[in-house]
Amino acid sequence: MVNRKDVESDDSPGGRFARRLRGLRDERGWTQEDLAARMGFSPTHISAVETGRRPPTPRFAASADRVFGTGDRLERQGRAVWASAILEGFDDFVPLEAQATEIRLFELGIIPGLLQTANYAAAITTGAVRRGAITEQQAEERLCLLAKRQASLERTPSPMVFVVLDESCVRRPVGGPEVMAAQLERLVEFAELPSTVVQVAPYELGERRAFDLPIHLLALPDRSQLAYAESAQQGRLERDMRFVQPLLTAYHQLQAEALSQMASVALIEQVRKGLS
Fold this sequence. Notes:
The protein is α/β, with parallel strands linked by helices. The protein has 2 domains: 4-82, lambda repressor-like DNA-binding domains (434 Repressor (Amino-terminal Domain), Orthogonal Bundle), CATH 1.10.260; 90-274, Endonuclease, Chain A, CATH 3.30.870. Helix content is 53%, strand content 12%. It has helices spanning 4-8, 13-27, 32-39, 43-50, 58-68, 73-82, 90-97, 118-131, 136-152, 167-171, 177-191, 241-257, 261-274; strands at residues 102-107, 160-166, 196-201, 215-219, 225-230, 235-238. It has a 6-stranded mixed β-sheet with strand order 3-2-1-4-5-6, with helices on both faces. Helix 3 (32-39) packs across helix 4 (43-50) and helix 8 packs antiparallel against helix 9. The radius of gyration is 21 Å and the shape is elongated. The N and C termini lie far apart (44 Å).
């Protein structure tokens, strides 16, 4: 858990925002409950932002500016946090993923984070840094979070993990032949686990492929279902079953259309051998 001392030594955009928020609150002698009532957020939410466990959303920063009378200073300071490698909504998704009994993934272009090797993940983040899309610090944040997410799969009992990869994930070379070959070998090993199913959606599906964006679907211990989808610029966590159910239906249809796990593993092995 992040404590006050950790935040005081954290010079990241999120750490600076957390210290500024807490300082403004302390100057007025308010408790977190006082600030929560004025801002329209829960005390737990205030605490999470002040300890750096949760980034400030645009709505949160704007509300803080209104309460403290700081113009748009907090909103502007928050922009550095919003530019982080972690998309809005993903910080809410990650702890739910760590609780899920079933995880369903669809990905385009790259191997999903939960299945990435360290070298593959590093190659992805290095490429983003070189393009100027993220900073080196943001790359480190992304890799650290990824390691925590992967470690959460090792819990007991293990969640069932269903993965459908667009064929582009398997064929797109990342990090050079050695890195890519090791990544494909990791996919085959993952497919052999008793709690996983890995399938490839071949190019031949064409317009029958159900999704045009990456999708995450979770089943939680209380049997509730949720979805998380993202583009390059934003993420959205959806809990309303009116919207989640059609995504589940489309995912099941995609599984039926995709290659079987046996055929998928054979394709992955074929691509891997072609790298040597």
